[in-house]
What does this fold into?
Amino acid sequence: MPAIGSRTLSTTPRAVPGASRNTRPTRATAPAKPPAPRPPRAAEPADVLVVGAGIVGAAIAWRAAAAGLTVTLLDPEPGDGATHAAAGMLAPAAESTPGEDAAAALHRAAADAWPAFAAELTAASGVDVGLRTSGTVLLAHDSGDRRTLHDDVARHRAAGLPTVDLDLEEAAGLAPFVGPLVTAAAHVGSDHQVDPRATHRALLAALDATGRATLVRASADRVTTVQGAVVGVVDDAGRAHRAHRTVLAAGVATTALAASLGAATAPLLPLRGVVGQTLRLQADPWLRLPTVLRGLVQGREVYVVPREPAEDGRYEIVVGATTEETPDDRRPRAGGTFALLRDARVLVPALDECVLLDVTQRARPTTPDLLPLVGESGVPGLLVAAGHHRNGVLHAPLTADAVVALLTGGTLPAVLVPADPRRFAPAPRPRRRPAPLAAAGLWASRDGAPAQR
It folds into this structure.
């Protein structure tokens, strides 16, 4: 058999219209071998790969795409982590504690960023994010709670936060269903709320509208490098996702992903999960709570956060939150649910009439010093945005803009400098200098006198 591609003579003369039967046979050419298919070209790396699509990761992705960068956002279940459980309080006063000046400054700057961020996000997505700026009523139950409330009010005023004492009649005017077991109240005008689930929906819609982002529903398995620089991740199906810069915003999982770089390279990102449980109730129109309530009941913190009403007048109330130093476990315990309802109904007894819609438990990513990890990791190509503890929703706009500033050649704002992820890196060991005698080639003799070796 002739080789494929060789030229052969036809064994059967072909009849050519208009030609004599005595026409000599013509040469026939075998069909040309089709060219071998080219291997598929690897997709161009994105400008930015964001691992984790909670409210922080989604906000970073949207802001980066809006700044003109191409973005890949990777998460198997976007928004199903701590964002899904969050109540959405923007509380620079209530979330500050004595002695934590860096955190207090960060909370205030983050709260200031929210109004403009919410307006831009709603305009870009068409989704109302539920920002309500009616402040928060602080409530106390017993004498110990009153003392704590008094101290908190004094501290908020000293920090310049708008806080006023309320008598019980004034408190009832702001929160009509406050119960008779409440003995003291105050109002803090700096602490507001937003709906985290609505905000997350808005972020994904706005991100899609940019036309420069791809959402991949997969879980990152490990971080990949080339010549010491991070170039993306490999997901749990073995697929590579490449980018010029990678941002780890994967909550508690951020620590394990960073560790996948190996002990010699991985940045030290000490995150632990602090589990919290929240409840969602459905209230009828008659039980109208116009503002956020935060209370102390025998030293235990509890909050009651009303959402905007639906078309039928019913609305959602979020009650929270427990705090447990336990491994990440999404199965709520009955004891936590009971404790939240017990304390919440001290503040608002009418909650007994609500329908229990949902009990959600998630782990809050938390660092040893309670400050987040935001910025360069110390490994080329790798940034971090994680560890926001109870304040991921509050910090999301400020964190997103700070990370995008780094991605586009800028620097961190001053309030986020204490959140540098490299603060936990072990200090380099000082090089041991030779002892003076050894440096001179002399060694101490048994009697302490220098001796030539």
Summary: The longest strand covers residues 272-283.
